[in-house]
């Protein structure tokens, strides 16, 4: 069995900070902090991303009514070579740090690892965070936006934002109930501008593993939400599941399709990036548990593990999806 | 307390694969597999690094008398943007994968995380691996070797190699006894060609934390071995410890100072890279436990968390050191 269950892990605080595009989107009012421009009052986009991380972590700590000294382990990661935002943030706090990389699946990856530390009493309180930024990610993986290269219609828009959670054993409204780690899946997709399609099979695999491990299906969840599959990848995943005989009960959704207003905003095929699943799940999805409107939600954060060098060497794009189940806690 | 102890984690198999420079070094005969050239029969250096990973993992599995189907979780990471060697290797095995990044501290990072999965019965058997390659790392962090840029005297030589371990609960000669995760330490060093100096304070911090947590000192270990501090960084660490009043009992060593013959080989200030601490500890250090010549060894893998972008933006180099204690198991 791949899925691991947690009996004593609760979310004590959670917070998000985003950029201007995200603020203007349909769930813009739900984020804790938003900046009017992508520089976030800094001189470089890299520093801007770090500012978003600071803001999210600081706010999460305040909401949990904890200080940084109360945190015993930090799990973090981001998209910039090599976890720049995470390392430069974590440098300023005096807490042991575990660096993780799962591309846009980071959100579930860092939260799950923090949960493992709390569940097994290796840490009383753990902080998990991740971030992404439209300007840093584009120049990391494709081309700097300043080049003005025309985007393909299959492209996604990297979410500018950061999210942070504080986990502990004290009961709260949001329980981190289980984690299904993903395998690396590669169905031979090669287009770095169509990562949604490449990632869909990974989400499909993790979802099937989770259902097999738990004996559950769609009707056991109020929502099952993938990270950033884009309109194309999400449609592909839906097809795969329907072909396999699953009844989706209209409960399958995607974070990247919730964060922007496709009529008003130029959001291509949807939002992507580590911050996409992190910010949407923390700000919107988990609020349903907090408000007692839902009982159980699964977030399947999806990551395209491409490297610019490997893509240039004509390699295909390996992908991964890590799933976390959140339940109403008390 | 930061240090976590393991009661039931043993090393069931371990293996290394290296390049030509490492083979010609003083411990060359101790590695399981060595290649005569840095391409390892592949067309690119990236693929060569992947071949080293394959070789190490395959050999470790054979030594543990296990098949890949027996492995329930894989923890891996490397230096190439973004864990290219690890992801492209793990794509070919049907096992859940946790991607980690701690620069050259990866060896202790991936082994410790795999140990956590085994100790807490989340996985029966876990595979942990890491790798580095002199040609891929140089072009990732500094300049491609093909440019022929003159090396500074403070520079280190990235070890070409990979190491893999299989962990499980069955008793063996090598017990994974404890893990002290590192904090990110930054003493304002800025020179990407002198990372040993930058990393020494991180090793110093983790060592102090470990001693404080356990009440032990140098005499409680047969060896305490840092990862890749270079002659300069190692000398700096020694100074820091002596100034602090520690009696080193001549038990402090560095993996990067063991792997090359400084008289015969052009190894600059010492070996570095994820494979440095991994290959030296697996091939040489742990053999002392296996041969019952030693009882307890600590490996403090050190990582310089620099990013080429951050260095260009005149940032300093944050560093980290993760320590694992290995004990004679039975």
Q: Over all CA atoms, what is the radius of gyration of chain A?
A: 18 Å
Please summarize the sheet with the most strands of chain A.
Answer: 6 strands, mixed
Strand residues, percent of chain A: 15-25%
Dominant shape of chain A: globular
In angstroms, what separates the terminal alpha carbons of chain A?
A: 27 Å
**Biggest interface in this structure?**
A-B, 52 and 51 residues
Helix tally of chain A equals: 9
The side-by-side strand order for the widest beta sheet of chain A comes to 1-9-14-13-10-11
Low-confidence stretches of chain A: none
Q: How many beta strands in the DSSP annotation of chain A?
A: 14
Supply database-style keywords.
homodimer, alpha/beta, Peroxisomal Thiolase, Chain A, domain 1, 6-stranded mixed beta sheet, 9 helices, 14 strands
């Amino acid at each position: 069995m791949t899925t691991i269950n947690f009996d004593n892990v609760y979310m004590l605080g959670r917070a998000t900070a985003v950029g201007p595009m995200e603020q203007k989107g349909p769930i813009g009012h739900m984020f804790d902090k938003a900046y009017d421009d992508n520089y976030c009052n800094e001189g470089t986009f890299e520093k801007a991303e770090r500012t978003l991380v600071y803001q999210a972590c600081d706010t999460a700590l305040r909401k949990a009514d904890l200080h940084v000294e109360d945190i015993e382990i930090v799990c973090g990661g981001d998209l910039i070579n090599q976890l720049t935002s995470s390392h430069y943030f974590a440098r300023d706090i005096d807490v042991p740090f575990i660096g993780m990389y799962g591309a846009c699946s980071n959100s579930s990856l860092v939260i799950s690892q923090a949960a493992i530390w709390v569940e097994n009493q290796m840490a009383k309180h753990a902080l998990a965070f991740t971030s992404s930024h439209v300007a840093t990610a584009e120049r990391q993986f494709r081309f700097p936006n300043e080049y003005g290269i025309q985007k393909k219609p299959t492209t996604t828009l990297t979410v500018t934002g950061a999210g942070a959670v504080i986990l502990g054993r004290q009961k709260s409204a949001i329980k981190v109930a289980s984690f299904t780690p993903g395998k690396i899946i590669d169905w031979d997709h090669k287009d770095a501008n169509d990562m949604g399609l490449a990632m869909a099979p990974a989400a499909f695999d993790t979802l099937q593993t989770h259902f097999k491990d738990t004996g559950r299906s769609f009707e056991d969840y109020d929502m099952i939400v993938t990270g950033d599959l884009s309109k194309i990848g999400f449609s592909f995943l839906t097809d795969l599941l329907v072909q396999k005989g699953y009844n989706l009960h209209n409960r399958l959704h995607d974070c990247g399709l919730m964060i922007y207003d496709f009529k008003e905003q130029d959001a291509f095929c949807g939002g992507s990036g580590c911050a996409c699943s992190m910010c949407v799940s923390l700000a919107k999805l988990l609020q349903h548990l907090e408000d007692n409107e839902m009982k159980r939600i699964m977030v399947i954060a999806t990551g395209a593990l491409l490297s610019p060098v490997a893509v240039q060497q004509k390699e295909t794009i390996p992908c991964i999806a890590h799933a976390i189940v959140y339940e109403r806690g008390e």
